[in-house]
Amino acid sequence: MDEKHDDIRGKIRGHDYRADISADLPFRKWLYSWLFDPKIEFNYQKDVENWIALLIVANLMALLFEQVPQIHDPNAHLFHIFDVFSVIVFSIEYLTRLYVAPEDEEFNDGNKKALPYFRYIKSPFAIVDFLSVAPFYLQAFLPIDLRMLRFLRLLRILKIFRVLIPAYQEFVATNKGRTFRQKMHALVFPSDFGGSLHGLFDTFIVVWVIISVVCVVLESVFSIEYILHIQFIIIDAMAVGVFTVEYCMRLYCCVEEPGFEHAVTGRFKQAKSSSSLIDFLAILPFFLEIFLHHLMDLRFLRVFRLMRLLKLTRYTGATSTLTKVIGRELPVLGASAFIMLLLVILTASLGYLFEHDAQPEKFDNIPQSIYWAVITLASVGYGDISPITTGGRIMTIFLALLGIGIFAIPAALLSSAFTDQLRIERETLTNALYEMLSDGVISEEEAEIINKEAKRLHLSEEDVNRLIDKARKERELKDDVSVLPLHKIAATSEHAIEHYRVLMSQIRMLGIMTDREKFELIAVKNSRLTPEELALWRQIQNHESSPSS
Amino acid sequence: MFLFGVVILTGWLGYEAYLEGHRTETTKESGEAWAKWLTVAGTERFNKDYSPSACAPTDSTSNTPHVWGECLKAITTASAELSNLINPFTQEPIAIVGGCDKDEHTTTGQMILQKALPTPPGSAIPFDVTLLSDSDVIDKKIQIHITICDGGDYPIKIAEVEF
User: Fold this and answer.
1) Where are the alpha helices (DSSP H) in A101-160?
2) Distance in Å, alpha carbon of B1 to nearest chain A alpha carbon
3) Predicted pLDDT of residue A6
């Protein structure tokens, strides 16, 4: 039983789980297993690749900013430090990969003639890695033109192919024989066919959203916008290009999604979904400004480019939780809003009543008093408008105290609703575990589902194991039918048979433990058992006939 | 084909946006050239025999004071550096205008020159900024604000120089 539980636990990993790699391994093997082995799950291989990819993107950004003399010239030393740091990191990566090459099956097939180090050095990825750092070392010995050096540093971008090519190969293999639209669907929408390339596509969009939003924010800083005006335009045009193509791709292949199959209505349904509307609003300001700027001033629309940040909601479960919570609590929130509205109108009216004569310029009419009412009830209290009459002040004391309670209601509602939602989601996971444990084991597919859900709910390994224990106990309790009422046992034939067997076993046990002769004597003498009952007893106890009969 | 068309369309629109931005950059560079020239002139025009003389302070022998209008004429005709500056939106020489006209879009790529006069001590604002008019006397140093009108006729402040 314990072995079974250990087996179940072995498959479940919380979001904080790390691979179990023995420290007794030879150092080179141990290092390869931790840092570069793609076959070992939960090691640092993906983290290393992600950090390297991030450094490559940072290098690309540095290269772009170097082209702007106003940025590069005063910060030349910082750019140099960053360049040196990047080269050091890339060099360490290159040397480490070279060192562990014999552990990689790709370079070590047991053939001693083909040296794994040499095979690694002449592999395409290693050549790219080498080219990304070589110009830096080369300039120490050879005078290289600065522009040429910068061009050579662009080669660092090629390092991204270390991540991209395996993902692409996996994608091609998974989608073999599928149509172009199905492949596009696998790339854009979450599905079983997307693989790592779908993850990279999502990351690509997220990176563009972040870059685009950072640019919009920086554009508002005059000194930065003045210098980087043209760069901001280029980045915005590229971002709009990426988002427009993504939007069209989603519309094109959404018909592969369940529920969106119809060519027209399916696409229309997709277009009016909240995520698609956000996608549309993210690109709309650019096109409106381009096409309509001759007719009207649409520069104010630029601020709506910040809506692109909402595109990130597609990639986080937090927004769906928030939507669920608000949707569930909408009637209560509506009631709370109604009370607040009532209170605001009442306060504004009383403020007007008490203060109009004393301060006609500040409490000129009720709509003007609403501003004061909201500021007072929400406990903000700017102080630009305040009551000066005794009646007004007394009323303000009561209303301010009332406002604290009334205005706190929505916050308290949302807070408790969030806690409830979390509990519901955990219970849902427990129920799923309960169903999965019906056969006593958790298959690889089930473990994968649990791991995904644990990651989404940010559950640690310990949390998941606790839920599994809870589900297992509930399952065991259900399996023990004897604790159920008889009518419930009778409702299920399997349970009825099991219960019958338990009863028979108990009767046999009774026969072994009690004095059978005395039992039968009393039963016959006092007519405590009917003849049928006595016959059955004897039959169960393997007695063809009693001594008295 | 549709996706290819989308890529082409967004690429073309992006290129158009880039060209528009590039034209604004060219206008900014023109403004910076003006700022550079005015800064240099501001340090040299009080020297003896400064050329163009219309931009130098009024000498004691002259009856009429030197004014900005004459200096401007001299700059845009005599100095090749400034006379060659072209408004990239109209492909005509850059004109000095009174302000950016967002409604009619008649001032795209043009330049605004304003003078900043210090206000008396205790004033709410340190400078009173008004348009530099042709009749303004240039015998003393003047604080000049240079602004250009971008592609959407929005003002972009280029520099504040002492002339």
Assistant:
1) 116-121, 124-138, 146-153
2) 11
3) 54
